[in-house]
Amino acid sequence: MKKILIIEDEPNIIELVGYNLKTNGYNYISAEDGIMGITLVHKEKPDLILLDLMLPGKNGHEICRELREDGNKTPIIMLTAKSDEVDKILGLEFGADDYITKPFSVRELMARIKAVLRRYEENNSPEKTNDYIIRIDDIEINTDRHEVTVAGKLVELTLKEFELLCFLTENRGHVFSRNQLLDKVWGIDYVGETRTVDVHIRYLRKKLGQDDNEDKYIQTIRGKGYKMK
């Protein structure tokens, strides 16, 4: 049974999310401040972390950055009351795999947890033995090692950024709408917060060395969506 760590300082949210995690077949543990949250990550080794942004002791951005700098690849979904795009981009920059803005639908949260866990397991399956390499210009993607290099330099991507890049690359030349990308990459069939896609595309471009106003790799097709050149 998968173990989920909730790092959240609002007891009512812990109770609500915890109840639904149990109902959906997960175990959960919780911490109400950032310092205890970090301690439980190392002690309990959860399969996924639900991480609030605004926390006493140590905020969500600090926790996310610290874990990634330590080499911890546990999937992280950030819970934030802030709708400011800067906060979302910072979360992705520090290594979060996804985010959901409060107030959120519990059903949507459960769907995102399931999708992130499934894709994390697929990308880290021990059955994979042969490296599969995708090359476009100076980008090289090793799908089995979960590594991306640009001009020979290793680029650190979050799980969702990596999946988005792989999907666009494997389907290069095809245009996908934001809702199609949510369905195919996030594994969630819904018409919802399509800005999630825009934020991931923007930061993925930045990591690949592509400016927003150029079509070096990922192209924006006005009124339609995105495609890999």
From TrEMBL:
Say which species the protein is native to.
Aminipila luticellarii
Q: What lineage is on file?
A: Bacteria, Bacillati, Bacillota, Clostridia, Peptostreptococcales
User: Where on the tree of life does the source sit, at the highest rank?
Assistant: Bacteria
This protein's UniProt keywords: DNA-binding, Phosphoprotein, Transcription, Transcription regulation, Two-component regulatory system
Q: Which GO terms describe its molecular function?
A: phosphorelay response regulator activity; transcription cis-regulatory region binding
**Residue stretches making up the Response regulatory domain:** 3-117
* Positions where 4-aspartylphosphate occurs in the chain: 52
Q: Which GO terms describe its cellular component?
A: cytosol; protein-DNA complex
Residues in OmpR/PhoB-type domain copies: 131-229
Which InterPro entries does the record associate with it? Answer: CheY-like_superfamily, OmpR/PhoB-type_DNA-bd, Sig_transdc_resp-reg_C-effctor, Sig_transdc_resp-reg_receiver, WalR-like, WH-like_DNA-bd_sf
Gene Ontology terms: biological process = regulation of DNA-templated transcription
Its protein name is: Stage 0 sporulation protein A homolog
* Purpose: May play the central regulatory role in sporulation. It may be an element of the effector pathway responsible for the activation of sporulation genes in response to nutritional stress. Spo0A may act in concert with spo0H (a sigma factor) to control the expression of some genes that are critical to the sporulation process.
Point out the DNA-binding stretch(es): 131-229
